[in-house]
Design brief:
Layout: H1 2-18, E1 23-34, E2 45-49, E3 56-62, E4 67-73, E5 78-83, E6 94-97, E7 104-108, E8 119-120, E9 126-129, E10 135-139, E11 146-151, E12 160-163, E13 169-173, E14 178-182, E15 192-197, E16 206-210, E17 217-220, E18 229-234, E19 241-247, E20 251-263, E21 266-277, E22 280-291, E23 299-304, E24 307-313, E25 318-321, E26 331-338, E27 341-344, E28 348-349
Antiparallel strand pairs: 1-2, 1-20, 1-27, 2-3, 4-5, 5-6, 6-7, 8-9, 9-10, 10-11, 12-13, 13-14, 14-15, 16-17, 17-18, 18-19, 21-22, 22-25, 23-24, 23-26, 26-27, 26-28
Length: 350
């Protein structure tokens, strides 16, 4: 009884404090552009993708340009894009996009050749790749020009390139169904190492981005007017397909953005209990959570030891995790899904 009283007291104290203080949460949003070289008019829409369903949860606005590469710079908090060579007014250029309005500002049109992807490392340095010359290039964010180029001898098709959380650049070549690790620093810059195969044609994953929490690479299954489309999730370095959701028609680029926000959120607590029936004992981890004032979610995702356990409606505030090990230790996070974005709770180890 004393343990139960203490648990309830601590949980109520956390909830009471939530009315007084703000909390810092990591919010993950998946941005995308709709529109490719075959769409008319030749411009792209900036949208937010629901990470559960793959549907468009919010259309931010029309960019006024035809986008061919997209990346989020976590250092400056900016969304950058390259334009297609099919853009009638600003081909092969670099844009800075307002995340709230979709307003795109021209930076420069100095690539000199066609570059089809865009990737930002943890320092905010932009890299792009040419499928026609096989060149990896560093992009000057201030001018939109190429500041350095590295020959790779790889001419990828229906491809994507992105940096993971360890600042490793990966290339996903749909033409050969190959996954490569790419050197970006020092005398070996531009050299590539084959690490695995993407698999079948439907598992192609072009113009994608790494999920900052799961570490999986999300890419688009098909280019052009091939339907239906899917968002494929790959693990590295093997390139194995670990998940897939339907995607909107004409989706062409992806970029995850993880932003630290001071808002209300999810406050999580946990305790252990056991139920006995005849000779069997069920060891249960009991989770309770609450939203801070002003917060709302559509779904809660329960994550144990980094793996998704279950998703429950936004009205649910507790969950019993059965059949846990008697002397085991588990780590839990509750993630609230809001319009395709994710707000994470505190981590509880029990």
């Amino acid at each position: 009884m004393k343990c139960l009283f203490l648990f309830r007291f601590c949980f109520l104290l956390l909830l009471l404090l939530s009315f007084t203080f703000n909390y810092v949460f990591a919010q993950v949003t998946l941005y995308a552009t709709i529109g490719n070289g075959d769409t008319m008019p030749p411009t792209s829409d900036l949208v937010v993708i629901d990470q559960i369903t793959g549907n468009i949860s919010n259309t931010i606005g029309n960019l006024g340009y035809l986008v061919n590469g997209l990346t989020y710079d976590s250092v400056e908090g900016n969304l950058y894009a390259t334009t297609s060579f099919n853009d009638p007014n600003f081909p092969n250029g670099l844009l800075n996009i307002n995340l709230e309005t979709g307003n795109a500002v021209e930076i420069g049109m100095g690539f000199g050749t066609i570059y089809a992807t865009l990737a930002s490392n943890s320092s905010g340095q932009l890299f792009t790749w040419s499928p026609y010359t096989g060149s990896l290039a560093i992009v000057d964010k201030g001018t939109g020009t190429i500041s350095a180029q590295f020959a790779t001898n790889i001419l990828p098709e229906e491809f994507g390139s992105a940096f993971d959380a360890n600042d490793t650049l990966w290339l996903f070549d749909g033409g050969t169904s190959s996954v490569y690790r790419v050197e970006t620093m020092g005398p070996m810059a531009g050299s590539v190492t084959y690490t695995g195969s993407i698999g079948s044609m439907t598992e192609r994953s072009h113009h994608g981005s790494f999920h900052p929490e799961t570490g999986e690479y999300w890419g688009i299954s098909e280019t052009g007017n091939s339907f239906p489309k899917y968002l494929n999730m790959l693990e590295l370095p093997s390139g194995n397909l670990v998940g897939s959701v339907s995607a909107p028609d004409f989706i062409h680029t992806l970029a995850f953005a993880q932003k630290t926000v001071v808002v209300g959120g999810v406050i999580l607590s946990a305790k252990k209990k056991k139920d006995k029936f005849l000779t069997e004992t069920d060891h249960i981890n009991v989770l309770n959570w609450a939203l801070t004032p002003g917060s709302s979610v559509e779904y809660f995702r329960i994550v144990r030891n980094g793996e998704r356990v279950v998703e429950v409606p936004g009205s649910v505030t507790s969950y019993d995790d059965h059949n846990r090990k008697k002397n085991g230790t588990d780590s839990y996070v509750i993630r609230g899904v809001v319009g395709g974005s994710i707000i994470s709770s505190n981590t509880v180890v029990i």
